[in-house]
Amino acid sequence: GAALKYLPTIVNDVKLVFDPKELSKMFTEFILNVPTGLLTIQKLHCLIEIVHSDLFTQHDCREILLPMMTDQLKHHLERQEDLEACCQLLSDILEVLYQKDVGPTQRHIQIIMEKLLRTVNRTVISMGRDSELIGNFVACMTAILRQMEDYHYAHLIKTFGKMRTDVVDFLMETFIMFKNLIGKNVYPFDWVIMNMVQNKVFLRAINQYADMLNKKFLDQANFELQLWNNYFHLAVAFLTQESLQLENFSSAKRAKILNKYGDMRRQIGFEIRDMWYNLGQHKIKFIPEMVGPILEMTLIPETELRKATIPIFFDMMQCEFHSTRSFQMFENEIITKLDHEVEGGGGDEQYKVLFDKILLEHCRKHKYLAKTGETFVKLVVRLMERLLDYRTIMHDENKENRMSCTVNVLNFYKEIEREEMYIRYLYKLCDLHKECDNYTEAAYTLLLHAKLLKWSEDVCAAHLTQRDGFQATTQGQLKEQLYQEIIHYFDKGKMWEEAIALGKELAEQYETEMFDYEQLSELLKKQAQFYENIVKVIRPKPDYFAVGYYGQGFPSFLRGKVFIYRGKEYERREDFEARLLTQFPNAEKMKTTSPPGDDIKTSPGQYIQCFTVRPKLDLPPRFHRPVSEQIVSFYRVNEVQRFEYSRPIRKGEKNPDNEFANMWIERTIYTTAYKLPGILRWFEVKSVFMVEISPLENAIETMQLTNDKISSMVQQHLDDPGLPINPLSMLLNGIVDPAVMGGFANYEKAFFTDRYLQEHPEAHGQIEKLKDLIAWQIPFLAEGIRIHGDKITEALRPFHERMEACFRQLKEKVEKQYGVRTMPSGLDDRRGSRPRSMVRSFTMPSSSRPLSVASVSSLSSDSTPSRPGSDGFALEPLLPRKTHSRSQDKLDKDDPDKEKKEKKKEKRNSRQQDMFEKEFKPADSSLQQSEAVILSETISPLRPQRPKSQVINVIGSERRLSVSPTSPSSQQTPPPVTPRAKLSFSLQSGLELNGSMAGGDAADVPPPLPLKGNMTDYGNLMESQDLMGSSTPPPPPPHQRHLPPPLPSKTPPPPPPKTTRKQTSVDSGIVQ
């Protein structure tokens, strides 16, 4: 050991008096005589000192010493002995050989290459990345390769002899090692020179090995698929490594790298292109596996590289087409890989343009790929547009933009039927919604996934269960879990109607397929709660806003488009605008609602146009009948796809005396791509339709909306007696108070004149409609005032009495000029009374059966009026505590006598039985002499009419059915039956209830019953002979906007209640 330690220290002195070659031989023999396994570390340190001596710098001495040293290194490296000393020795040897003044080194590099290169490679491969020596050994390997010349690479193959497998193994080892070192570099990123030197060496080695592939492994007999595959993956990994992406460096550093090393990406890229084209008939073996790596290479932002490598895609298309007559595999693979690459940061606008241009040029020149190839290219370009938009805003704080882009991408995948990618983006969208507490939208998003599944035992494909939370082996199990989660989200979003619909479908599975009664029980309990919530819980109605994005400053998915947004709970336009402008701080808010000009659209800035729109109700067919407002109100702001915006415009000369005469309405109807709410809180407008509404049509619409508003509010108070009275007070007072009664007078001045009729003869029917609506407002107001009188406190009694006095004046004026209208007695066409579980019940109509012919005013054969009744239903439980007719009587009488008023107050507080007797006793003489017209209600079935009217007579507590013929000569008519039930203001569109002033005696003979085609067709007003045949229907329900037929022109025009200009605009839906 001492000899090994101190002998090298005298080498330089001994060399002066002793032959260096002989000395070298002595040292060689001395080292070889050291026993194997003993004094290893001392031996290696002795060799290191010899390398450091002058002896090793002499060519002849190295010829003797180097083979012994390489043998020693190989022996110890293979046994993993004293690796640090071995690495130091090899490093020192290579350092000496790199010097210029040590004589020829080619032969010595060859010795090292032959004996140590593969051993060092395997040592590097076996080492972990956490080893302290990994960097040293990689440096040694790099140094060996750096000093190897072309001759050495050629000789390396010869050293393997005729054993082809040894060459394959060596190249496979080398390719795998290079790829690992490139993917996980052993040197820090900021060691730029070291990394660049390594890359330069690796690049040369890869190109040398590529020549070996072309020479030895390309022909049909010797082709090695895996070896070629490893080469392509290595080359692409080298090209795409982070340390070669020059655009990430500063301009100064980039310039130095280009000056010293060049752009190695371009060099290896061109080599890959050449190697691909060299494959010839073997190309098909690399499709579709090589599509991803080639795509990754072409996405590198180097223009010349892209131009050189993008044509490889066309070559792949062509190759697959020649083999299978399609390029479906290539198309599927590039779409899948493009999604991952772009999301990971690859690609840009320039790449999209180059891809489009280059591939289109190639496809159009091909005889068979011209059409299908062009379609494919356009499809990929569309996908790139969406993916680039998505990537741009993926980390944006504005989650709404992220949602928009996500939907754009998932819709594209749905369009091209890429289910796996479609589901992937569905869950990205769902996660965004949950982050924003958009539970309704999250539910609709998950529902899209659920719709892809069947209630079956089919095995669930891997791509269908992309969430760890779902443990399902069959599609049915996964669908059940999804439904449970969706119902939960709908509940949190207060969309109980949707939750119930899904619950019914799931309940059917539990009951008839799974027989899981425990789950069924839990589900039905939830459904019961949902129904109760619908009736009892007040849900805030969201506003809807139209938003236009104009200017080139917006991203492509917004630029030049109009969207309808669903506001949040209690969010008004001002708050919404503030939120919108926060997302786009550089945007300018437009002051007008008119469509912008080209100067705005093409400007480089950002302009936002925002205004409130009104959803157009599209009620499901099952609700086209009297339905509780609490149920219908949901559909006024949900499941809507059409929205309208109205603004007033003036035409003709301005009339200062009457602004209604020339106030037209410009109404824009927006139709969205999908119904709201949906998988987003907004959707793009797909069609815009504009109409102009004449002043007369506007007046009709205003009156209709006012009537609907009264009807709706009255219905709400009937449903929930605990509602505050203030809104009803303001509404009623605003209509009946003389201070604001100018509205009717304005209509008279504008439309009810002979001059207007002469100028607009075609408007006769519309004028009659307007008159009819004015007349119909009276019974609505009457019921509203009756409810108001029941609910007010004594402190508000003077206010109410003044309102009643105003209403009497208004009622007298309107009925005198436009006729009398009487509300139907709780008409319900559902063939029976409503269940008592409702907040309030609808009463049965005053007829024997819904499908039988009946007349309230029909007379028995003995000329006594038949008493109304119910076909098998007791009326008493259905009657509320107070009746409409009693309150109506109070309003009908004008006598201001104080005693009569007190008497009426006492009557209003009387009990149910008194009212029942009052309502249904025969008419007395005072009623027979009244000038009020009795409304005759008839119900005509689809089957032929019966010759006799079947009426149920109720006498005392006895009920019996009497069939009595109506007598034309009858001299008496019964009073109208008007028990106050839940008023059915929302009437069917086919309903016709007629009423007008009777000029003759109340005992006039009613006209015969007409033959009707509609099942719900009512008719035949009993009038004087002068006004025989006049017919006008009541206004339709709020959710049906069919205007009634016109009144006869003989009716004098009335003065309508005056409304302010602002009120008229609001009622007609105008957003000013």
Automatic annotation (TrEMBL):
Q: Which UniProt keywords apply?
A: Guanine-nucleotide releasing factor
Listed Pro residues bias regions: 1032-1058
Q: Where is the composition biased (Basic and acidic residues)?
A: 886-900, 909-922
**MF annotations from Gene Ontology:** guanyl-nucleotide exchange factor activity; small GTPase binding
Extent of Low complexity compositional bias: 845-872, 962-972
Q: Where is the DOCKER domain?
A: 413-823
Q: Which GO terms describe its biological process?
A: cell migration; myoblast fusion; small GTPase-mediated signal transduction
Has the keyword Aminoacyl-tRNA synthetase been applied to this entry?
Answer: no
Span list, region Disordered: 818-1072
Q: Name one GO cellular component term.
A: plasma membrane
Top-rank taxon of the source lineage equals Eukaryota
Residue ranges with Polar residues bias: 1062-1072
Please state which protein family the record places this protein in: Belongs to the DOCK family.
PANTHER family linked to this entry: DEDICATOR OF CYTOKINESIS, DEDICATOR OF CYTOKINESIS PROTEIN 1
Supply the name of the protein: Dedicator of cytokinesis 1
- This protein's gene is called LOC103733379
